[in-house]
């Protein structure tokens, strides 16, 4: 067991912390959380902390939503009962009732997907025991949790007790079965079930010790130990979720547990580590010359790999993934815009599952649009398991006043964002089955929404009034450029889908168009709407007005507020912020990052230079899209600063406000800056192109990507001034840098010289 409890030798794969600081513990528990897309465990100590704990331990199960019996009917992801609690009793009291500041060493081994802990008793204890733990949520068997605890007795002799206990269940979980090895609960309103089966064993010097107590919620061992002995606790959990009344999650949990127990902890660990090796082989980003950036990217990719479950099409990834309680587990546009590119290019099966979730919730999107008087599909701004709108109507603001939340009705760009993700997935994978079974319908129904939403007015233009763009400081605005241009793009892609299906799959098109009652005259109306969409673009300057009237608002020099520790709406107050040009997050710049073709000539620089100084970055999402745009403009050092600032949100030592979970979309944004920004990746119908713009100090950037069944590794090498590409599997494809196009085949790597001046990025 000793080797298993030792972390990977290469420190570049490790995130470690020595000591214990109660003020930072909740943030650290977030940072070293482990998950597999179905289960998430925060990095709480294995031993009971009593009064020292700042937050209760958390075990999360994807898709386990219910609605409280009182208050606003907002669904929330319920924490599962914590079955990983361990109390160790020693002759002179509990083991580590409150840790000595120097007694603990916690390591997140990202290479192996493990959380490892070393703890020592403070000096003077009757028994000197060194505690080592290993914890994993299996990436191979997603319902399985393994916990290993090793107690090495180094001095002394005496009685110890080990109590394995489970925490209290949420009030929204009703107990159905309470047995020593199985607990089953039912949610009060949503009709879901949760089952947890457990098996545990204690071994001393190779001999298994029977428990002295074995009841529901508690297994206990009383042991006499002496110096030189080693006590090992091994615990397996099997967790299942049931979504239908006929489900038998208890039976499935026991079956899964039997399989896991039969493999043994070594077998479970080996299969888990193999699964992680395979994920890293297809997703690891290697940077040479910048250890800080390497750490940021590896941390980001670790959590991205742990956030998705390609086997579950009923769930998506919430704003804090499975690492914290913030936003109640709700899904936002973040998933499609900031996470989907990573999955589409490194893990298409996971991307497909996430988009299938959106297809499963299409009925709710249609109902929302109809309820507001429009046609087509308007997706929920905050979505849970059903896809119904889950945005709270009010919250308490920083000034403790009740604030109305309008995002649920006005932040409508989410429908175009979902369509954008579907199209990007289709371009990256050529997954015809998904397009015909789900993707085409999503794009068509979201396009229909924008057609009904954009009203034709006396000036001959179609306007979209009363919305909120990504910049949430400004509400109920007209003709938000991001919303309108994305809506136009959505309409045009709807027309492309109709033409494509009519040409390649006419029978399928006849069936779908009939079911949707989508006639040729409506499609022609879509074309007219797109052609006459108001966008706020000044054709002479190339500058988009963020929304109608934005240029008339108060201009505020944000440099005068440099170093502030709170968002600008707190500094200025809501009313003055709304009357100013201060932007919460990338809005026109977000459009620049997503649809660069909308900015011909030097319009990209014009818009970036206008809006970047006006952005207060009041959202964790903001800097990443600024980084992508800056890198494409060739401003690599500025882009690197955005990457570092984004990384600091979750990794910065000065940040203690991430107790609610990692900012998973920001982590996806870090990957975007590196791959779509610095490497300049663009996906085409006939291959991939690159326009590398590495920042100073980066000598090499290497990463794997997948494209339409091909698996390749790309390396930008500034020492030799070449881009190298190796095809590891799949058919021949085209790779280009600037105007140089090369054919790439398995067994025949290519090298393309890098141009001295990078070519502009084409979409």
TrEMBL record:
Parts of the chain that traverse the membrane: 656-683
Family: Belongs to the glycosyl hydrolase 65 family.
Domain Glycoside hydrolase family 65 N-terminal per the UniProt entry, residue ranges: 17-240
InterPro entries per the UniProt record, alphabetical: 6-hairpin_glycosidase_sf, 6hp_glycosidase-like_sf, Gal_mutarotase_sf_dom, GH65_N, Glyco_hydro_65_C, Glyco_hydro_65_M, Glyco_hydro_65_N, Malt_Pase/Glycosyl_Hdrlase
GO terms assigned for molecular function: carbohydrate binding; glycosyltransferase activity; hydrolase activity, hydrolyzing O-glycosyl compounds
Protein's UniProt keywords contain Glycosyltransferase: yes
Organism encoding this protein: Methylobacterium bullatum
Swiss-Prot/TrEMBL keywords: Glycosyltransferase, Membrane, Transferase, Transmembrane, Transmembrane helix
Protein name as annotated: Kojibiose phosphorylase
Active site (record annotation): 472 (proton donor)
Residue intervals of the Glycoside hydrolase family 65 C-terminal domain: 683-731
GO biological process: carbohydrate metabolic process
Annotated binding of substrate, by residue: 333-334, 584-585
Span of domain Glycoside hydrolase family 65 central catalytic: 298-671
Highest taxon above the source species: Bacteria
